[in-house]
# Entry
Amino acid sequence: MKKLLSLMLALSMLLGCLSFAAAEGNDVIEINIYHHMSTDTARGQATEKLLEMFNEAYAGQYKAVSSVNPDFPTYQEKVKAMIAANETPDIFCYNFNPNDLSRQESGKLMDFTPYMDEAWKACFKESDLELLTLDGHLYSIPRAQQSAVFYYNTELLAAAGYDHFPTTWDEFYACCEALKANNVSAISLYTADDAWYATCFLTYAFASYAGSTVANSGVIDCEEMVKAAADLQKVWQYTTNDAVGANYSVASNNFANGKTAMIIDGPWLMGSLPEDIAGKVAVAAAPNFEGGAIQDNYQVTDAQSPWAAAAQADPAKAEAIVALLKYLTSEEAVKIYTLEGSEYQSARMTLTDEDKAGMTPLQLGYYELYATGTENVVNVQRNLSTAANSALPSLVESLVLGEISAADFAAQLDAENAY
Amino acid sequence: MQRVSSKRGSSAFWYTVPALAMTVAFFVVPLVYLIVVSLYKWNGLGAMKFVGLGNYTYIFNNANFHKALRVTLTWLASALFLHIPLGMVLSLMLNRRPKGWRFLRVMYFIPNVISTTAVSFMWYFIYHSDMGMLNGLLRAVGLGHLTRSWLGNTSTALFCNQVPFILYVGLTTIIFLTQLSTVSPELYEAAEIDGADGLRKDLYISIPMLKPAILTNVMLNGAFCLRTFEYPFLMTSGGPSNSTTNLALYIYREMMSANRYGVSMAAGLVTILLGVLLMTIVTLLQKERKVKL
# Structure
């Protein structure tokens, strides 16, 4: 009896091992995609939907698994730390900065050049691919480069006597004053983390003084930047009390809760606005100077935020990564990102009338503004060195609290950028 | 006899080997690595470039580093002149065994077992400019003109960061109480016979007997102040205008945000040297006390 039992036990163990080996032999390649788009946002939901669609399309061959860190500044730092620790995620995204090519130069990123066939190449603008090519190697795939535009609460502006968004800077400040008289904070701004809203405003002011050529050149310590910094000081009197020290979520919630009348942000904001307020929100081109240095409907854009991947020793894994990135940059995926995720992608797409009919008025307003943009200026912080970016929030705080002058701000930012 | 003693010495040495090995592996080796990296310009990913003492020259000429050093010394001052004296006063009061003293002792200690993260967020909301309890209280008692953005103001943010540390004296009080429990009751009885009141007994018996506990508290709280990170990081992110950035946060920022690993390590070494200096002073004071005894 004992012998029989032992035999059965040995047999079951052997069968177990065999079934494990069979499962291993399934050859389903798992692709870990690490990103910042959480599923409580429209773009996160769109990403999850696309990954599910990919997993269905490649069932039994590839499986994409996502992990999310919604705190974008922390996410970027974590990715760098992972690359340094030889734990580069299979696929991730980051903000491209020509002054910080540490990821590309680490030797740990996949070179997409051999996989960039004509069909895939045709999905992107030549300029985007050129931007991401370093010494003939393409270490990233264009993902998104979106405009940060002025969103405004039509009800609050109407109550202040404005049935349209100010078109000149003088009118803008008069509108801020009228809102203040109504006990409404005119604009959402913040200084913590990357001080994104504050730097969007700074870049708009800088671009309208300097024009797109100078504003995109990387020059910081100049007269136009000093004027723009002075404008940032000026507009601070119209923001909320908690703006110094607040972060993105605090400032965007101030707009979503109707505490502020304006905000400068990308299309992703639309996906996070509650329905009751989204109906009252419209988008508009930035104010300008009459006969100024830049054309009307100029736009401040975020950095190109491309996909990148870990260098692979296994060609099959590399193929899997390329398959997923081709899927995510296909026209079908780009439409899902745009229409459902409120996230505009770099890959080309054509929206049909039917597509447009399915958009909300706010989405359509953003799309039309985006499509008719005249000149683009990349947010100044996206072209700074990592060290200068790190110093920027505290410099903005010193500026708006009156501890340093606008000229000191420009000079100190330039000095940090030079180290 | 000598052989037995030598054998004992040898076996005692082997007992210390695991701890010694751990110290070498997890402190000495990383310390050497830290010193080496502090001599290089490195962003954590690319090639390392030897710059000699360049990173040290940079931090000693950098206004933000000076500010971080000042903030750290202010934390030390808050420990020496506010936190420890408060703990001492509280322990002297509890040592008189007032009604409910056991309950009070537990109450004072509770904040020490709550995570600093939770405490930081709690105080963040107390100070919040719109929905904060502090501004609400000021408005309620007719002092609305005193309301402000406590954490968004360079003149109040640092002190506001330190308030939870200054107030939560549970552990410090326990250390003082432990020391007070070793004081012979006969000393107090003799003082009472000589007509000493409570204050005189504290001044001439309790406080002089607390010196070892004072030194222990200086060492523990000093070390805490040198490495404290959560309060400035979670309550103010080091702002506004770096007014709450201490050395620990400066080191973190230089490495994680600015990606200047060499600068970060150089600042780290300066912090370690500050700690060594503090410990040396405390040790010398302890030795001096033993010699006097």
